[in-house]
Specification:
The chain is α+β, with helices and mostly antiparallel strands. The chain has a single domain (2-111, 123-285), classed as Porin. The protein has helices at 2-13, 37-49, 139-142, 147-154, 193-203, 208-213; strands at residues 16-19, 22-25, 57-65, 75-84, 88-97, 100-110, 159-163, 178-185, 225-229, 231-236, 246-256, 259-268, 273-285. The longest helix has 13 residues, at 37-49.
Amino acid sequence: MSSAIVEELISLLQLERLEDNLFRGQSRDIGTRYVFGGQVLGQALSAAQQTVDASRRAHSMHAYFLRAGDNEKPIIYQVDRTRDGGSFSARRVTAIQHGQPIFVATASFQQPESGLEHQATMPGVPMPEDLGPPEPVPAAALEKVPAKLRRWLMRAGPFEFRHVWPRNELDAPKRPPQQHVWFRLAEAVGDDPVLHRSLLAYASDFHLIGTITLPHGVSYLQPNVQMASLDHALWFHREFRADQWLLYSCDSPTAQSARGLARGSIYSRDGVLVASTAQEGLMRLVD
């Protein structure tokens, strides 16, 4: 089962090239109301990478979600080759559905080179093998949520997760805006670093916006809570494998004006900081 799901995700990230700078990606309905933001992030990065010299690796990506994506339709990615310099290449990517942009991003790629190094220390948390998988949602609780969300809660996704501090999203308690989550792709894949970057871009959209809700005791499953990702920033620092355990350490320093900010640091299990993220999300309480 997991092998087919992983293969489906990899296929989703491998776009059809329509023209030199034009690509088409399929959409996958994973139970969310609209296209999952991580899918668009991963596909946009994949499209940009295909227009850059293969020796240059993505080191940063900054994106805005403009409109909700349609799960039932493919997405067209138009790449603008903004600049190719001696060491860096910059690309702008626009994702289009129904004739309108739903997402824009800039991505930067660098020729590998050495330099000065330092990094933050990984938090002291239990290792993934010391933590259990998420508890299944009780059948009685599942009956209370809409059918589409029920499918989301019951799905077996391409990534495994181990929460240091598990939380019941159907009965969310208030707690400090911080969480640590181990994750990895459910199956081993090849060594292509480009693929692993696209996979990490996909996975980086999990848990970030949810961190903003923690001190308020609300959940995206509540009918009076409206949530959406507004933007997403991702920096790649060092090489990694998405099919090996990575720790996502997230915190939210502020929420105001129906918006909240979340930040994330991603470490390999031996404590190497491999990537950083930031995301602002919409969070409204509605009637």
